[in-house]
Amino acid sequence: MGYLTLAGAIACEIAATTSMKYSDGFSKLWPSLGTAAGYIVAFVLLAQTLKTMNVGTAYAIWSGVGTAVVAAIGMVFLGEAASFARIAGVVLVIAGVVVLNLGGAH
Question: What is the pLDDT, as a whole number, of residue 103?
């Protein structure tokens, strides 16, 4: 169940961050409300996840996957540069999450 609530937290955080891009500095109502709602739900789900999962593991997965997916969304859908360095950075973030989980998965 912990991984399911963590996946929901990640999805909400990604949606909230993407909505923030469209909020135009919180000057547009609906994307701003989407940002707030997404982060509230993300933190509630993350808090539920922490009942059954180590904080280091949960946070590494949450922040790493969120960072990688938001970076990919920016490059694929929002016209952000997809340079070798950026792609390598995303790969390193994912590798870091994997290493943290392999090193402390008890």
Answer: 77
Residue spans of the domains in the chain: they are 2-103
The structure's pTM equals 0.90
* Helix%, strand%, coil% for the chain, nearest 5: 80, 0, 20
Residue pair 58/36 in contact (Cβ under 8 Å)? The answer is no
Task: Identify whether the C-beta of residue 5 lies closer than 8 Å to the C-beta of residue 44.
Answer: no
- Residue 65 neighbours by CB under 8 Å, 6+ apart: 10, 94, 97
* Cα radius of gyration (the chain): 15
- Token pair recorded at residue 68: 């990688």
> DSSP 3-state assignment of 75?
helix
Residues written for the chain: 106
pLDDT in tens, 57-101: 899 999 999 999 999 999 999 999 999 999 999 999 999 888 888
- Residue 106 pLDDT: 53
